Prior knowledge:
The protein is an all-alpha fold. It contains nine helices and no strands. The protein has one domain.
Amino acid sequence: MTLSALFITAFLVGLSGAMMPGPLLSATIASSARRGWLAGPMIVFGHAMLELLLILALMAGLSAFLTRSEVTLVIALVGGLFLIYLGYNMSRDAQAGRVQLESSRPSGRLSTDMHPALVGVLLSISNPFWSIWWATVGLGYLVLAFPAGTIGVASFYSGHILSDLLWYTLISASIAGGQKFIKESYYNTIIFMCGLFLIGMGGFFLYSALIV
């Protein structure tokens, strides 16, 4: 992958995940109502710092291991299958109209009592999906980025985090302004397209595994 391809695809894959209802989205909605539009960026900051530490740890301890051909084969296969699985489920649920922003309305005090940056860290590290994503898709992207060195990893990371920052900032600004950000029909259409994109990226991961 070129640096621009790493950045763009990491952004789109990250945006697809960020847009799905989940703990971070719930926290953003709750914190924005109390703290204003900066809650979203602060939650992403905590999330981003945790992921940066994870990437640095992987680069320091596993970089040689992750560049072995048999390891890259397994990572690309597993990551590709996981992306296809995610994309299929997203597209299916969106087509059926089952993906709703309202389902992310929070029911608790965690996201409002704590500082948003700390919430971003705690919700990320306690979310099993986050660990699974990094063990499959995240590692797959690192394998693709390693040949370009540090700048390749930086391209992946910046694209991935920028997607979170833009989406959660838009959500928090919308909530703080007392507006509904997007119609459910439009939202489901976007999620459907994101699902198709993930299926395509999963196919690319599988293709890259077969030509190793």
